[in-house]
Write a structure and sequence with these properties.
single chain, alpha+beta, OB fold (Dihydrolipoamide Acetyltransferase, E2P), BirA Bifunctional Protein, domain 2, Gyrase A, domain 2, 3 domains, 8-stranded mixed sheet, 5-stranded mixed β-barrel, 16 helices, globular, nucleic acid binding
Length: about 575
């Protein structure tokens, strides 16, 4: 039988119609001889009813959850209506019923809520993906992807591909390496991003490129990071920073409107990098709640508190001190220390009295309250470390944790911000050299090119990140298009001439042949879908993700391979 409808499409307007349906048995109920069957597909549920005198009755009694069936019947009005589903006013009186496939009892429940562990869900991911909540994530992902594609095509961008097997140019995360059978001892690398290739499209004169690109990084995993991920990669010639940002804004506005019917107010606000660190302790601030950071050395240094001796002290006031119990404060202390701070101190104002870990050092209570603007029920949280950057970062992590723990952010709010005016370089103390804060193809501000060698720390980049609700969802820059400036960049990064030639010689060479000014941005599709579907873990919106320990439990990967394959690749392992 060819089905006529999906399982969310029938309603009172179809009463009396003969229909064919297919799907999975969500559940069955035998009520006084009448057998009710909830039939499920990716679109929804339709209730079937089989009467005792029906020739299909015996077949109906055999049905169990997750059997695959097809049914023919007549649409009738449902006696006991269900307002929670779109088909809740009708049911199908079955005239034909065929079992297409039986099913064993599943190791996880196919429902909205299931108590199975993440390990079990990932091992049986193909069953987990039958759950309506998981299907919604992936169907939304498809809608989001297509909306982004539509917008970029409308803006005259061309969709091109770039190679998966490329050259290892380690300057960021670790590469995934692929050994060559034809050239023993040599390796391809999987792309961390199509950065160089998309620039070469600009050299080739295509002007506007985009790609829904698979990317790979061998790095530690977390809730918003996987070993393989998807970027919406965008590059354009002859556009300024502002013009590229406008392209991305139009794309996001179109996508949010089409998929969620949500209006994004344009243009999206801009915040300098320095202000983001100063006020929020993060280059990806969550602006759905306040809690701005302040510096407190001018206030605290005269108190000569041993804990803060020769330290940078920053923090903020939280207006619900009673929520921060000793247990909570101990947990937050561990958090800031994990993020490279030395200590977390606090002062509470309760019943007009100061208490807390440094209260005994405060001789003039009234002056302290006035200077900190503390109000009844407030707590001042103070983070300290050896320098401004570490202190700001740890205080920013603390701010984010309190915002999440105490529900300060509206989960239905979307708060965008561009982070602009980035430094071009940062100094890596461990390796005693400058590194690119974004990547080594980012252009300096035009008026600061001459400072790249003599004062690298003062040079600002033509770089920009777009942030949503505390997550970086995209990063980009104007690229270096002059061979001499690219050469200078590599030299400041401390790369030897031979290394430059080996890793990037083709790009430096390409820039000599009339490369246009160009720039772009890569949007993180996985993070965008995660935020638009209001889930907390990126694994929910990736069909077949890895565990936090980087294993695919369903495919049992990584795994050993046959010795013959290793022999062909001329590979052996150290004992």
């Amino acid at each position: 039988m060819k089905y006529t409808h999906h399982n969310n499409e029938l309603n009172r307007s179809h009463l009396g119609m003969s229909v064919y349906l297919k799907g999975w048995v969500a559940k069955t109920r035998n009520l006084g001889g009448l057998i009710f069957i909830d039939l499920r597909d990716k679109n929804g549920i339709t209730q079937l009813v089989v009467l005792p005198e029906n020739s299909n009755y015996d077949t109906a009694t055999r049905l169990k959850s997750e059997y695959v069936i097809e049914a023919k019947g007549k649409v009738i009005e449902r006696q006991s209506k269900n307002k929670n589903i779109s088909t809740g006013e009708i049911e199908i009186e079955v005239t034909e019923l065929i079992i297409l496939n039986e099913a064993e009892m599943t190791p996880i429940g196919i429902s909205h809520e299931d108590n199975a562990s993440e390990e079990v869900r990932l091992k049986y991911r193909y069953l987990d993906l039958r759950r309506p909540v998981m299907q919604n994530y992936l169907l939304k992902r498809s809608q989001i992807t297509q909306a982004i594609r539509e917008s970029l095509l409308e803006q005259a961008f061309n969709e091109f591909e770039t190679p998966i097997l490329g050259k290892s140019t380690p300057e960021g995360a670790r590469d995934f390496l692929v050994p060559s059978r034809i050239y023993p001892g040599e390796f391809y690398a999987l792309p961390q991003s199509p950065q160089i290739y998309k620039q070469l499209y600009m050299v080739a004169g295509f002007e506007r490129y985009f790609q829904i690109a698979r990317c790979f990084r061998d790095e530690d995993l977390r809730a918003d990071r996987q070993l393989e991920f998807t970027q919406i990669d965008v590059e354009a010639s002859f556009l300024t920073e502002t013009e590229i940002q406008a392209v991305i804004e139009r794309t996001l506005a179109h996508t949010f409107k089409k998929v969620l019917n949500h209006e994004i107010e344009l243009p999206i606000r801009k915040m300098p990098y320095d202000e983001a660190i100063r006020s929020y302790g993060s280059d990806k601030p969550d602006l759905r709640f306040d809690l701005k950071l302040q510096s407190y050395n001018d206030l605290l240094d005269p108190l000569q508190i041993p804990l803060f001796a020769d330290k940078v002290v920053r923090g903020f006031v939280f207006n619900e001190a009673e929520k921060l119990t000793r247990k909570e404060l101990d947990k937050l202390t561990l958090l800031v220390k994990k993020n490279h701070a030395d200590a977390l101190a606090f002062v509470k104002l309760i019943n007009n009295e100061l208490s807390g870990s440094i209260a005994k050092f405060i001789a003039n209570k009234d002056a302290f309250i006035e200077q900190t603007n503390l109000k009844e029920g407030d707590i001042l949280l103070l983070v300290s470390s050896s320098n401004y950057e570490k202190t700001s970062n740890a205080a920013g992590v603390l701010r984010k944790e309190i915002g999440e723990s105490f529900g300060l952010a509206n989960p239905n709010q979307f708060e965008f911000v561009w982070i602009v005016d980035w430094p071009l370089f940062e100094f890596d103390e461990e390796n005693n050299r400058f590194v690119a804060l974004h990547h080594p193809f980012t252009a300096p501000k035009e008026h600061q090119k001459h400072l790249m060698k003599e004062n690298p720390k003062a040079v600002m980049a033509q770089a920009y990140d777009i942030v949503l609700n505390g997550y970086e969802i995209g990063g980009g820059s104007i690229r270096i298009h002059e061979s001499s400036i690219q050469q200078t960049m590599f030299e400041v990064l401390g790369l030897e001439k031979e290394v430059i030639e080996d890793r990037f010689g083709f790009l430096v060479g390409a820039l000599k042949y009339g490369t246009p000014p160009h720039g772009g941005l890569a949007l993180g599709l996985d993070r965008i879908v995660m935020l638009m579907t209001n889930t907390k873990n990126i694994k929910d919106v990736i069909a077949f993700p890895k565990t936090q320990s980087a294993r695919d439990l369903m495919m049992q990967a990584p795994s050993g391979v046959d010795s013959k394959q290793l022999d062909e690749l001329k590979i052996d392992f150290k004992k």
